[in-house]
Amino acid sequence: MKRISIFFCLLALLACRQNLQTASPDGSIVFDVCLDTAGVPQYTVSMDGKSVLGPSPVGLEAEGLDIYGGYKVRKVTRRRVDEAWEQPWGENKEMRDCHRETAVFLENPSGVRMTLRVRVFDDGAGFRCEYDAPADTLRILRENTGFRFAEDGTSWSIESNFDTYECPFRKLPISGTPDANTPFTFLAGDVYGSIHEAALYDFPEMNLERVEGTEFRSRLAPLPGTEAKAVVPGAFKTPWRTVQLGRRAVDLINSSLILNLNEPSKIEDTSWIKPQKYIGVWWGMHLGTQSWTMGPRHGATTENALRHIDFAAANNIQGVLFEGWNYGWDTWGGEEHFDYTRPYADFDLPRIKAHADSLGVALWLHNETGGNVPEYEAAIDTAFALYEKWGIHTVKTGYAGGMPNGYAHHSQYGVRHYQKVVEAAAAHRIAIDAHEPIKETGIRRTWPNMMTREGARGMEWNAWSAGNSPEHLCTLPFTRLLGGPMDYTPGVFDIYYEAARRNPDRKPWNGDYSRTCIKTTLARQIANWVILYSPLQMACDLIENYEGHPAFQFFRDFDADCDFSKALDGGIGEYIAVVRRAGNRYFLGAGTDSSARALDIPLDFLEPGKEYDATVYADDLSAGPTDAAPTPEDGARDRRAYRIETRTVTSGDTLHVEMAPGGGQAVSFIPR
Catalytic: which of 151, 375, 440, 460? Predict the structure, then answer.
């Protein structure tokens, strides 16, 4: 491996006419830019003096105009930035943007001017191309930006797919990964890293495809019926291509690079954008005990709505989401046509809203499109204006269907649409929770009403498939969640679906899945509220499964509006421990894969000199088998078994965490 790294360094020196180097503020990461003999920009990245990415090309190809090669350097500018900024919400509200920037101004014989802008942070680097071409528009045919790993290693990713992110994660050699979506997380030598993008607005999302060996190139979703991937103005900027780096796996989680590469908020008054805990009419639909359409099993009825609002008010929960509230669900499976302003006849919205207002509970509405984007775009201004009039400030969107006219979800067309919704919502003081979304690239800094997204296999996969493994849950924080918050919708307490199985009217909407169940312990379901970050955090189970349950006290105490977060320890796909602070209270979540595991966690994140009541929600390691499980294998240990302990702790103590296979532990720390 050492010989390969030396080879790449020599190759870079031989190929470059001019070397332009940018080091991180602490000097640990170095990003080199040069031009090869064809005038194509290339870059290399090293950390702690060791090559991570060897000579890799940068740039695009366009129809009828050379915008890729033949460049010469016109000038170079450099600057250093070190500034603090605050988020209205986020994992950490107090942020620091500290980086060095180099802007390389280039020009080629075609009259194309391109600036390669590089920003290097202590936790990685970002770079983008800023074009000024002698053309009104450009048809982009491909992106040649590459990522050539200096040595082989291990990667964690999902397959390249332009229509869904709900694919299983793969752990593969870097050299054995054929393609991938991003974030593309890797371990090469002793360096952990992740390739992703930031500030994606008017361009197809970036996937990766392996060219040969350990070399990857960008892969963009095409526009239908053409070789073009995007149509852009002659003067435009690409999204940032990002490389996060760390010495420990949790360094990637603690990185703020993606957010720092986005612009400040365009919403001047953000006081109406508030993190919330919420419940909703949702899980029963996936279990088959309720339906989206009117009828005997309809979930979004007036009676059910009032019951959920009462439960929220009694349990310190700020919001209630309703799916299937509006006309159009009966068209599902054909050419969907939804009415986003007309409630079903059995959903008395004025009465429901008045009751919610009287108890201080926020009402959420779901907008499912079925992928009918033109219809939704024609409706959103009217619908959002009406929601604002009704006092509804949170909308969950959904795109569970194909885009029209052959467009891919993640194409330029899709990216533009998702952003149009975010901006239209902001104009009417509405926050968005997007399902079947475009991936998160940090635009929540610029548009903080874009609060959370799905964008991976979430909880519903447990209702009608083999389900999500404990390894999946231990991979998400190091992959999908590096982009930003995820609405995983965690928190099932009825681990073996006993209530659903007893329901004689249950009708599984996607087949007979009588053998399904949650693959983790109850304690891990609680810990997921901390581990899987979302400022809109759901307790997804049927509310009757929470009523009177002692362990639900954690969610009552939990605060989704956190001020500080830190991943404390973890191994990709193996285990994870995270702490978050909201005001003067702390919440810790830990989880493991299919192996039992013990961790010792110093509590030095607590405020020194104070005592805290620590309430521990842990696996009951003495639990035996259960007949409630759908198969003997699932019932080998009763995953519902838990224990609650309370003790007094300080910042000088160490917490010993023991977890069962597929287990976890959650702890609330309340100052005395």
Answer: 460
Residues 455 and 485: beta-carbon distance below 8 Å: no
Q: Read off the pLDDT of residues 529-581 as tens digits, 9 standing for 90 and up.
A: 999 999 999 999 999 999 999 999 999 999 999 999 999 999 999 999 999 99
> Of 3.20.20.70, 3.90.950.10, 3.40.50.2000, 3.30.1490.20, which CATH number belongs to 273-455?
3.20.20.70
Give the strands of the sheet with 215-220, arranged side by side.
20-23, 29-35, 41-47, 50-57, 146-149, 215-220, 206-212, 179-181
What residues pair up with 132 in beta bridges, in sequence order?
A: 113, 235
The pLDDT assigned to 509 comes to: 62
CA 545, CA 529: separation in Å to the nearest integer? 17
* 460 catalytically annotated: yes
Mean pLDDT of 383-407: 96
> Are 58-260 and 273-455 equal in CATH topology?
no
Do 191 and 174 touch, CB atoms closer than 8 A? no
Give strand pairing partners of 546. none
What is the spatial distance between Cα 591 and Cα 201, in angstroms, rounded to a whole number?
35
Provide the token pair at 518: 């949650």
Is residue 238 predicted with pLDDT exceeding 50? yes
| Rg of the chain, C-alpha, whole Å | 25
Q: Classify residue 311 by its DSSP letter.
A: H
d(CA 431, CA 408): 25
Looking at the predicted structure, is the pLDDT value of residue 176 above 90? yes
